[in-house]
Amino acid sequence: MQPSILAEWRVLFAFLVFLSIFAAMRVDLRIRRSDLALFAVFGVIGLAGVSLIYYEAIKRIPVGVALVIEYTGPVLLLIYARLRGRAVGGRLWIAAALAVLGCFFAAGAYDARLRELNALGLALAAMDAFIFALYFALGERLGKTYGTPTLLVWGFGFALVGWSVVHPPWLLPWTETTVDGYVQIAAVVVIATVIPFALTLAAVRLIPAARVGLAATFEPVVAAVAAWIALGEHLDPLQIAGGVVVLIGIGIAQSLRPTAGSV
């Protein structure tokens, strides 16, 4: 199954899951008309765009390199916060540097062959980092006004609209997909979409987006460990060391208590 097809299914089914759950719970999902444009950017660019551009990037450069570039997004968030006049402590910069450095080794980017890199792939990965940061920043901003259910339903709703422009849902391989395929899709939707996105958007309502983004750099570590356990893939000592460094960076970031004027 093509990654882009799986990504579209993730968005489609996640939207249906969120809408069904919160509608059954009678959650008020109304938003102000003036915020429609912001939600559209959040969903189409922040949710749908980050996946689409990532998949385009890994067609051209190694996955490990693309991941490391994408996870410089939290550093962009720190820069953005500093430009807006918010205080960013020295220990937080150190935490961000450790998280990105650890991600580099945990994702195995050090093993990428330079001949496999090309300018377009690197540019797409850099764009993905910017969109990744935008997703967290918009989530934090919208989360000051709306609850997590509203962010999830409207965000994934607009993401589905974005995907529908690129590839309409009725063109998905509905009949060609086997029962086992749908079971695997369901697992991806629940484990890799519904749960993590719900937790992430709940988190940005409680702590600064930059810190949530730094915590997200642990994702390549989890992916490497999961591949080792489930698929029997080999973990290099450098990957293990990288995972430890990421944990140290996240630990430093979360140990700092934010104030009203800081990140």
Task: Give the topology, please.
Elements: H1 3-24, H2 36-58, H3 63-70, H4 73-83, H5 90-106, H6 119-143, H7 148-166, H8 179-203, H9 209-216, H10 219-230, H11 237-255
Helix pairs in contact: 1-2, 1-7, 1-8, 2-6, 2-7, 3-5, 3-6, 4-6, 4-9, 5-11, 6-9, 7-8
The amount of beta strand, in percent, is under 5%
Alpha carbon gyration radius = 18 Å
Class of secondary structure makeup: mainly alpha
End-to-end separation in angstroms reads 40 Å
Summed over residues and divided by their number, the pLDDT gives a mean of 87
Strand tally is: 0
What overall geometry do the principal axes of the alpha carbons give? globular
The domain count comes to 1
Task: Count up the helices.
Answer: 11
How would you sum up the major sheet? none
Residues in helices, as a percent range: over 70%
Low-confidence stretches: none
Q: What is the H/E string?
A: HHHHHHHHHHH
Explain the overall architecture.
It is built from eleven helices and no strands. The longest helix is centred in the middle third of the chain and has 25 residues, at 119-143. It has helices at residues 3-24, 36-58, 63-70, 73-83, 90-106, 119-143, 148-166, 179-203, 209-216, 219-230, 237-255. The radius of gyration is 18 Å and the shape is globular. The mean pLDDT is 87.
Descriptive key words:
mainly alpha; 0% strand
Brief account:
The chain has about 260 residues and is mainly alpha-helical.
